[in-house]
Amino acid sequence: MRFTLLVAGAAVAAAAAAYLVPDRDGLAAAVESAGGLNPLLAVLGAWVLVLAMVPRTALAFVGGLLFGLGPGAGYVLAGALLGASTAFLIGRFLGREFIDGVLSREHPGRCGALAARTARLDRWLGRNGIIGVVMVRFLPIAPYGLVSYAFGTSATRYRDFLLGSAVGVLPSTLGYAALGAAVFGPSAATMGVAVVGGLGLLSLVVTIGLHRVRKNEPHPSPGPSRPDNLNMVRR
């Protein structure tokens, strides 16, 4: 029941965000009327919108558009980490018990093979959560909020998830905020192109490095097979 609530709640939040997110004029009016509360409202807005699975890159672009490169990236990064943490804890509370129960049971045929592979991945995330989170954050596989909910249902530790999220989203947040700031300044345009180009190179380097770390990870040696044990007993 809790896992069903998690899936349904995420779907409702995503559907609501598609209709409730204000347009550019609405955002500009909100910023102008907020005055000194702009930083707080920007962080809270990013927090809520991440939970509703609004793309974080779009939030970073809008943050740069409204507040400039530095403040916009900072506000969105803070709100995105708060939203990711909340989504992770919701996923952990509502979905981890169900996933753990599914993976611990035996399943016939292809379902069994899929469950075994998923269980191995789950155990790997429990040991190497930071590497797994950084890899997923660098590669735009799924929406930022949805991935946060999913990691909550896995064996990933919270501290690994939070640290991996911070490392994985910082370059792209700066890049898209710089592009948003470029709308109002030619100097920011140069910064935006440089940051986005560097982001692509950095993503490639980090992905290759993490792949090598995972490849070189020691694996436990298999124990003796059953026939060998039987031969030893006979001798």
TrEMBL record:
Top-rank taxon, per record: Bacteria
Pfam families for this protein: VTT_dom
Keyword field: Cell membrane, Membrane, Transmembrane, Transmembrane helix
Locations listed in the record: Cell membrane
Stored InterPro entries: TMEM64 (IPR015414), VTT_dom (IPR032816)
Residues passing through the membrane, by range: 42-67, 130-149, 161-184, 190-210
Main localisation: membrane
Domain VTT: 54-181
Membrane topology classification: Multi-pass membrane protein
Region (Disordered) residue spans: 215-235
Family (UniProt): Belongs to the TVP38/TMEM64 family.
Protein name in UniProt: TVP38/TMEM64 family membrane protein
Annotated source species: Actinocorallia libanotica
Lineage, broadest ranks: Bacteria, Bacillati, Actinomycetota, Actinomycetes, Streptosporangiales
